[in-house]
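hi support,

uploading two proteins for the ticket. first:
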Amino acid sequence: MLKGFKDFILKGNVIDLATAVIIGTAFTAIVTAFTDGIVQPIINTIPWSPDQAAGLGFNIISDKPSTFVNLGSVITATINFLIIAAVVYFIIILPYNKLASLAGFGGEKELVATEVDLLTEIRDLLDPDAAEKAAAAKAAADEEAAAAKATAAFDKPSGPPPAVAPLPETTRISTPPP
């Protein structure tokens, strides 16, 4: 039981995840300090109302400062998110995908060879002309199938037989001769 837990903990994915959480937390502190110390004061200088002490926003009820809607903090949080997302993408995701594609692993599924594919490959290795012979045989079979299909189209009617109109009934009126 403890061996399985040890194997789980020592897998690369868990260690990578722990490292990412630690680095992400430290980076979030840096970005928050940047946005609070530099971006927020710049946003607060935008003229919005005569009372700029609270920052960019408005009061829902003008007499109560507790009803202040702080738009500057929303803008700062959005900028904070965009900075973190861009850094994570360009510093972590993009290089990882590049390394994964170079190493031959990652998001793409590897094709599993079937028995027929393996046997064909072995045959081609043993007899270099086998691939050409197989291609010629396949082309001949395709031509025969196309010819059979073309002649079958002429031999069989292409649809139901045409409808035949019924003959009109003749009605005789017998009149006695004069």
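and the second one:
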Amino acid sequence: MASSALPSERAPGRGRSSLWRRIRANAWSYVFITPAVIGTLLFAIYPIPASFRYAFYNWNGIGEPREFVGFRHFVTVATDPIFWQSFRNSVTYTVVLVPVQLTLALILALVLNNSRLPLRNVFRTIYFLPIVTSMIVIGVVLRFMFQALAQNLPPFIYDAGIVNPVLGFLASPQWALPSIIAVGIWHSFGYNLIFFLAALQGIPQELYEAATLDGADARAKFWHITLPLIRPVGVIILFWRSSARGKSSTRCWRLPRAGRTTPRKSSRPTSFVSLSRSATATSQRTRTWAMRLQRRYL
């Protein structure tokens, strides 16, 4: 009678020893990532729960908070129309900027990935140059450029009321937010371009050669080879850019505030409102904690 061999039970310490061997094999990897992990825990993770309690107090920024007010700050922020207007601005900023930025970066990456393109390294440098340029300098230069553009448009645009030559683009309630979005797309899409280029250059050329032998055209290669292989990079960029939706306060501050006029609340995100309030009014500092917490979890 043939007997079937039963699987032997796993030794009690086998899993633990296997885990320990993997840790020892990657010991130097853990050593190199330890500073980044410690910095993230201290400066990104820990401040969130540590600062949560300040939203429940009236605090002037000095010493320990003493006057407990409960959820009063959260109620005030939730009933503040400026907060909800700025929240809509942040959502609009993200919904428009992220898809346009990813699409533009992918198209340019496909073009620059062509080895037969002349001066492609020069174009890569030009597209990445805004990333390493100070936003303060860019804001001052672009303010004058937007103002000059608004004053030199065809007369029928002024007659139709599309653009006010006095207010220009940055001080106009209807054009301030689109202008800031356009600057945001131009300023930071170089990061996405570099990531897409790295992903494209990591695709084996043998796949394209095999597809050519099978009679696939350029469109089929893109949809069935290129796009599936760069999708993980695209997902990472999508989450990364979406999480940076509240970091547009620098652009909002430098572009409109560089001149004599400032836009109305039609272009201000929640990060800008909380920053300006905490900087200008001591009594509103603890209220801005509630605003930042509500913005983060909304």
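thanks. also noticed: The domain at 88-269 is CATH 1.10.3720.10 (MetI-like fold).
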